[in-house]
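Quick one:
INPUT:
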């Protein structure tokens, strides 16, 4: 009987030490997704080169708006993902914006409203949107900004 109670105490000590180090499962999944997304997305989109003739061209202005919109969206997503990683690591406190991001990405697995700068299908989940649609759009905008000569 005494041996059994000693074993239980030993397990209790181990469990209490693990509780401080083990994160909730949703946090582990969120951290993995954020790391994958940050690794796959480009850091930035190149800006278009300005010339006096280009500013007068409506096609150039159209592409400039699209590239600037994509660049702002990419910067916002990078900032949010880094902030979520810091929360998962315990380096940053949650705020209303990050709580909304966590709820949307973890619970409903949807694309957060602040990231919806263009129309996307209603049923698409965030992981699929990030890995396919957004990644390809950003690559396309980057290619356009490098090769656009009007």
């Amino acid at each position: 009987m005494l041996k059994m109670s000693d074993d239980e105490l030993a397990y209790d000590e181990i469990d209490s030490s693990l509780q401080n180090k083990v994160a909730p499962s949703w946090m582990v999944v969120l951290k993995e997704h954020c790391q994958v997304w940050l690794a796959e997305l480009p850091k930035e989109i190149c800006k278009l080169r300005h010339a006096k003739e280009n500013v007068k061209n409506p096609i150039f202005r159209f592409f400039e708006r699209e590239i600037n919109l994509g660049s702002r969206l990419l910067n916002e997503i990078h900032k949010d993902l880094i902030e979520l990683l810091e929360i998962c690591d315990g380096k940053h406190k949650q705020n209303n914006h990050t709580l909304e991001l966590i709820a949307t990405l973890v619970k409903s697995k949807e694309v957060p409203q602040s990231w919806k700068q263009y129309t996307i299908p209603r049923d698409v989940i965030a992981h699929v949107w990030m890995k396919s649609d957004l990644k390809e759009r950003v690559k396309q905008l980057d290619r356009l900004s490098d090769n656009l000569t009007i």
